Amino acid sequence: MNLSKLAVVMVPLLGCAPHSYADPRSDETLVVLAKSNFNNSIEDIPTNITVISAEEIAASGVKTLDSLLRSRAGIQISDTNSGPSFSLRGFSGEQASKNTLIILDGRRLNRQDISSPQVSSILVSQIERVEIMAGSGGVLYGDQAVGGVINIITKKGDANSGSASFSVGSFDSVAGSVDFNRKLSEEWQLFLSASQDNSDNYRAHNKRESGLLLGRLSYERGAEHFSIEASYHDNNREIPGSLTEEQYNTEPTLAARKDYSHDKTKVFRLGYQYPLTETWIIDADMTFDDTAGSGTSYSSPFSKNMIQRFGALTLEHQFVTSEREANLLIGLEGANNDFLYQDAWTDRAQDQQIVSVYGQVSYPLYSHLSLITGARYSAVEDELSDKASYPSAQKLSESQDAYELGFNYKLSDTQRLYVRGETNFRFAKIDEQAYTSPGVLGLKPQTGKSFEAGWQWVELDHSLKVDVYRLTLKDEIVFDNSAPKPTNGLFDGANVNADQSKRYGVSLSGDTRVTQDIVIGAEYHWIDAEFIAGENKGKTLPWVAKNTARLYSDYYLNESWRLFLEGVYTGKRFRNTDSANKQEKLSAYWLGNVALSYLKSNWSASLRVDNLFDKKYPASAYYSNFGSSYYLGDSRKLQLTVTYDF
Fold it and tell me: What is the spatial distance between Cα 186 and Cα 160, in angstroms, rounded to a whole number?
């Protein structure tokens, strides 16, 4: 078992061959999150990064991203039975999707409206790895990288290889995928992939059908890279609505509504990297993303269309100092986004333009001490029209900057310390700008300050990681039930720039090799999230559990069989929107998961059981003056997967 990489990033060892060893003195795991060709090793980045590999995913037997990411790196999840939202560093369920940036192969999945990024079409068996940065990413990623960044990287394939996977499980779940990679010449390579994932899910009228087609043609000669890619995503989901407290207790599978949503997304990308010299690299990326959606909401039909055009250009230089190599990264980004939403009450459109420039320097002060500093400037202009609030098109302009200063100190070959401070921001979404109180013309950008410090110790058989952080936000963009209703508004409340809030937290994680074939590990995350100004000063932020934890064990029964056990704990928390903490907290709960895996030659199989003890728990819950509403988490769920590599 290779524990060195596991130990540094603090993820369970699930996919390495038994009895294999690596140099424990360093972690050379390279991450795309760094956006750098030279300075992209975890051991040189002063922040909390977790990497989940394809081997770990396969051994754990998971089939959904929420099962994979639950409690990893402190992630808390909310799901209104229409797809999960992932929260890093303490955000409520409704705020999570706006403050955690989700990336798929470098493409931003976060939408222009307040809906959560759609990840249903991404079959877990098609994922190469997941990189999680817990903490602000304002300089490198800008808008919405407030609590952290989750980067999903799909398989690229080795030369002349392929795989096929098939799954069946509870709730009439059926999934399958196939990928094919062919080396056309010494420089050219073709990759094709297709997947489909269907499930009726636990509740009535909650059927989901998700499909993905992808084709990629790539060229590589030395450090020169070129790729052209096209993909098609199809997500069709029935939406059962929320349950009353009585329904949640007596009829939890009931469908309170019979709405649906159907999104079809076409993506086209071009990427090119060219080494100008041995120490200068230029990298360009262009993406065109077109999503057409339709469905019903409270039985009323709607349609929407979102077009996102994104371009990025980076220039990177590595230079030698008296100590060792230093690195300079300069980036320019531009986005043009169009949005149209229509239903019986709303005719809303937005044309948005965002331009950003950023830079980052990694510089060795001494042989074991490095400094990382950077800055970003972003400007956004929205031309917004809304039948109710803005019958005439209204232009709204804002700008914001972000700064970063971090230090990375290697105490020894097996220990390092880091400290980092960074500012962050996010701009208001179209739904938020279009529903404000009378007299409020546009919301100010939300801004924040993040500070973190960490220590990690890595030995061959043992490891430990400690991370402490503080995040404060100003002008946080939230929906306030008590705010004056907008002119011609359909319901009470409005989007506002709220009073300040803060989050303090501690993350502990580690692992140890009990025997040659058994690894056990644990994660614990404590967070104190509360308002620090306004009428709710001193109140706890809703839907943020102060305590979460994860225990796991990975056991090689023999060369072919492997057993994975996992327990995930979520502590007590207030319902979403209960900012005044009027209700009692929801009960804490444990979820137990188990997977048995088999590997023989080119064949592999796994049987995964989620929620082994069939614990009843809310995936999301809300509070209003009319009472509480609930969305149910899955009951016990079995999934059998068989994979053949060719």
Answer: 12
Q: Please, which residues bridge with residue 198 across strands?
A: 174, 209
Digit-coded pLDDT (tens) for 568-597: 999 999 999 898 999 999 999 999 999 999
pLDDT score, position 10: 28
Per DSSP, 170 falls in state T
Structure tokens at 419: 């400290």
Only one residue has tokens 């890619």, namely: 229
Query: How distant, in Å, are the alpha carbons of 64, 354, 426 from that of 397?
Result: 39, 10, 13
Instruction: Give the integer Cα–Cα distance in Å for 298 and 32.
Output: 41
C-alpha 550/C-alpha 202 separation (Å) is 24
Distant-in-sequence, close-in-space partners of 185: CB < 8 Å, separation ≥ 6: none
User: What number is the average pLDDT over the span 453-465?
Assistant: 92
Tokens of residue 213, six digits: 């087609």
Q: Say what the pLDDT of residue 496 is.
A: 93
Band (pLDDT 50/70/90 cuts) for residue 444 is very high
Distances (CA, A) of 330 to 82, 155, 281: 39, 28, 11
Buried b (16+ CB within 10 A) or exposed e, 462-498: ebbbbbbbbbbbbbbbbbbeebbebeebeeebbbbbb
Question: Residue 270 in contact with residue 228, Cβ under 8 Å?
Answer: yes
d(CA 143, CA 138): 7
Q: Report pLDDT digits (tens) over 199-238.
A: 999 999 999 999 999 999 999 999 999 999 999 999 999 9
Strand ranges (E), 298-389: 300-320, 325-342, 347-364, 369-386
* Token pair listed for 451: 């500070």
∠477-481-485 over CA atoms, to 5°? 90
d(CA 67, CA 62): 6
Among 443, 416, 340, which residue's Cα sits nearest to residue 385? 340
Please state, rounded to an integer, the average pLDDT across all residues of the chain: 90
Residue 54: enclosing H or E segment and its boundaries? Answer: helix 54-60
Per the structure block, which two tokens stand in for 268? 């086209």
Give helix then strand counts, H and E, for the chain: 7, 34
Contact call for residues 224 and 274 (beta carbons, < 8 A)? yes
Give me the phi and psi of 620, to 5 degrees please: -160, 150
What's the pLDDT score for residue 107? 87
Burial class (CB in 10 A: 0-12, 13-18, 19+), 278: exposed
- CB–CB of 121/234 below 8 Å? yes
Can you name the residues that pair with 638 across neighbouring β-strands?
A: 609
What 3-state class would DSSP assign to 55?
Answer: helix
Contact (CB, 8 A) for 456 and 413: no
pLDDT in tens, 502-521: 999 999 999 999 999 999 99
**What is the C-alpha to C-alpha distance for residues 78 and 196, in angstroms, rounded to an integer?**
24
Mean pLDDT calculated for residue range 138-156: 94
Q: Over the stretch 260-298, which tens digit does the pLDDT of each residue have?
A: 999 999 999 999 999 999 999 999 999 999 999 999 999
List all residues 6 or more positions away from 332 whose beta carbon is below 8 Å from its beta carbon. 312, 313, 314, 356, 357
Quickly state the pLDDT bin for 28 (edges 50, 70, 90).
low
According to the model, what pLDDT value does residue 19 have? 34
Predicted local distance difference test score (pLDDT) of residue 477: 93
Residue with tokens 């769920």: 637
Rg (CA), the chain: 24
- Are residues 58 and 118 in contact, defined by beta-carbon separation less than 8 angstroms? no
pLDDT of the residue at 572: 97
Tokens of 547: 């305590």
